[in-house]
Structures are given as C-alpha cells and as structure tokens.
Automatic annotation (TrEMBL):
Matches recorded under InterPro entries: Nitroreductase-like, Nitroreductase/BluB
Organism of derivation: Kribbella karoonensis
Highest taxon above the source species: Bacteria
SUPFAM superfamilies with a match to the protein in the record: FMN-dependent nitroreductase-like
Protein name: Nitroreductase family protein
Length: 324
C-alpha cells in the first residue's frame, strides 16, 4: 500500500470478498473492480457474459447490482456510509456502478448488521420443510426489496398454478435449445474451482412435479439423489417499475438485500427464472403477477429441509483490475 492509498489491503480484501459472494447466473461472477482512493467502480466483465441465455445482459447486471449491495454492506461494517452512481461515465459503458465511500465513522447501523449473512447466503435448490413462512417475514422481505426501489409480490395459489404452466413451457424450450445447453455444460455440473455451479450445489432431482429449476436438465449428472419436494412452494416475483439497465442494477441490489434479510431469518431461496429468459413468457409472467411492473427475478423461498453444497468463488485478487 502506498502512503496515499485510502484503503489497506486487508480492507480491500474484505470489500471484494463480500462482493464476490453475490449470486450471479451460472455463477459466472461477471464483475471486476477498480479502486481509486475512496471510489470503487463495479465493471462488467464481458469475458464472463452468457450470450445464449442472457443476450441482453439483464441477468449479468442483476448480478452486478447484487455485488454492489454486498460492497455497501461490507463498507458499512468498516464504518463507511456509501453513495452510488449508476453507469456514471458515458465514455466507459463497462462501468456499471460507482460507489463513493464517505469518511470512516462507526459501523453504519442497519446495513452493517447484514454482513454476517453474506457468506451464509447461498442458493438452495433442495426441498423445503413444511413450515410456512410467517406473513410478517414475507412483508419484511417485500420492505427490503422496496427500500432498493423494487417490488416483491408473493403469488397466491392460483397465480402459482398459472406460473407452473409457464415454467413448464420454458423448461421444454430450454431442453431443445442447443446454444443454451452448451452454455450450461460449460458452467454447470461436476467439480468446479473458482466459478460455475458444481454438481453438489444442484440439489436432488425431484420425484414428481416440483417448482424448481434443474440447471442440469438435458445432460447427465451421475450420482444425483432424488427427493420429494414440497407441494406448495412460497413463490415471489421481484419486479421493477421500469425496464432499462438502471432498473436491472437496482433489481440486483433489491434482490441481495432481500436475500440477506431472508438468510438472517434462516430462510433460503432458489431461482425459477427460466420463463424470464424468453420475452413472450416473461410477458405472461407479467400478466400473472397482475402488474404493470417488469418481472426481473422469480424466487422460491422457505426453510431448507436438507443442506446442499455451495458454489465456489474466485479469490478477490483475481477480480481487482486497478487500485491506486
Ligand atoms: C439473475 C440471476 C438469475 C439466476 N437464475 C437461476 C436459475 O434460473 N436457476 C438456478 O438454479 N439458479 C439461478 N441463479 C442462481 C445462481 O446459479 C447462483 O447465484 C450462483 O450459482 C452462485 O451460487 P450461490 O447463489 O449459491 O452463491 C440465478 C442468479 C442470478 C443472480
């Protein structure tokens, strides 16, 4: 560290390790970071894009928003209030978010309390226990999403039935889409180091119909166990009032705030995003949710009945492209 550097190496490690633990589609971790004094830029790493499943870059921006939220939480623990600028530099469109750290004080109340949940949170694709989530907790998660500018809508049973049909259509399309299949083969299954979704994190195969996305659908994953899944999952749709790159980044921050809040109540989540990857099916989900808002993420939530493996992360050093 030079005498002029604002953060120590340990502090940079804390910030970027937190950021790396954000969720991202297929665990591509589509981010890199530049640090200039008290300013941290979150950049899109185009080498980690998913051209088949995420042609428009919506999912990767949701991941970048989630990473930025984790950065804010870690900064709050270190005592920094943060302010944000979305896509701050027209000359550098790869800079998705710029985070400004204010002068250090005591840990920032509220945000810093979520720090311990960052490494506990992971996507849980197994069956849920038959214990319903209390209505106050559902409300709390909606408030968490709302405070980042998004909306979380819990679906009733008739909406869930309609969604299940749309998901089925998406699953069938996925199975016959060679490009998506190859992309999944590149990122999913087996043992993984640093990125991708290892077989151990896929969870068991459902016996019978279940509201879960099997990321390995279409290719063999040996030794996979089977399990009976809950018959009525708690399903929510995270929406934004508008549809542009800023909305996607905000959706990512809202997603991560609600997921960390859920983790603090021992509630786990998995993604049912397959219909949102097809424009016509996304419109159908929009109709089911009954809102003008734009669906960005579909979540299945509950208390996990088992445990499943975690997806690996790269070392924070590998995500830092500039620091002075
Ligand atoms: C925008 C977005 C979309 C995702 N879509 C899916 C999905 O459809 N199915 C799924 O099983 N996981 C999905 N995931 C979860 C990622 O696979 C997961 O975050 C990644 O593997 C890292 O693992 P972790 O969440 O356990 O840390 C999605 C994550 C994000 C951020």
């Amino acid at each position: 560290m030079s005498a002029t550097q604002y953060l120590t190496e340990d502090e940079v490690g804390i910030l970027l390790t937190a950021a790396s633990h954000a969720p991202s589609m297929h665990n591509t971790q589509p981010w890199k970071f530049e640090i200039h004094g008290p300013v941290i830029d979150v950049l899109r790493d185009s080498e980690r894009a998913l051209p088949a499943a995420d042609r428009g870059g919506r999912m990767s921006r949701i991941g970048l928003g989630a990473a930025a939220f984790n950065l804010r939480v870690a900064a709050a623990l270190l005592g920094h209030e943060t302010t944000l600028a979305l896509e701050p530099d027209p000359a550098r469109p790869d800079v998705a978010l710029r985070i400004f750290l204010a002068a250090r004080n005591v840990p920032v109340p509220g945000l810093s309390s979520l720090y311990g949940e960052i490494t506990r949170r992971h996507t849980y694709r197994g069956p849920m226990a038959g214990v319903p989530m209390p209505p106050e907790l559902r409300h709390k998660l909606a408030v968490a999403a709302g405070s980042e500018g998004a909306e979380l809508d819990w679906l009733d049973s008739s909406q869930r039935t309609r969604l299940a049909h749309i998901i089925q259509t998406a699953d069938e399309r996925d199975l016959h889409d060679e490009d998506r299949l190859h992309e999944r083969l590149r990122w999913i299954g087996d043992r993984r180091e640093g990125d991708g979704v290892p077989g151990a994190a896929l969870g068991p195969l459902p016996q019978g119909p279940a509201m879960v996305r099997d990321l390995a659908a279409g290719f063999d994953t040996p030794d996979r166990e089977h399990a009976i899944f809950e018959s009525t999952a708690a399903v929510a749709v995270l929406c934004t009032p508008s549809e542009d790159t800023h909305a996607w980044l905000r959706a990512g921050m809202a997603l991560q705030r609600l997921l960390l809040t859920a983790t603090s109540h021992d509630v786990a989540a998995s993604f049912l995003n397959q219909p949102l990857e097809y424009a016509d099916l996304r419109d159908e989900v929009r109709t089911v949710a009954g809102r003008q808002a734009w669906p960005q993420v579909i979540l299945r939530c509950g208390y996990p009945a088992h445990s499943t493996g975690h997806a690996p992360r790269r070392h924070w050093n590998d995500t830092l492209s500039e620091w002075h």
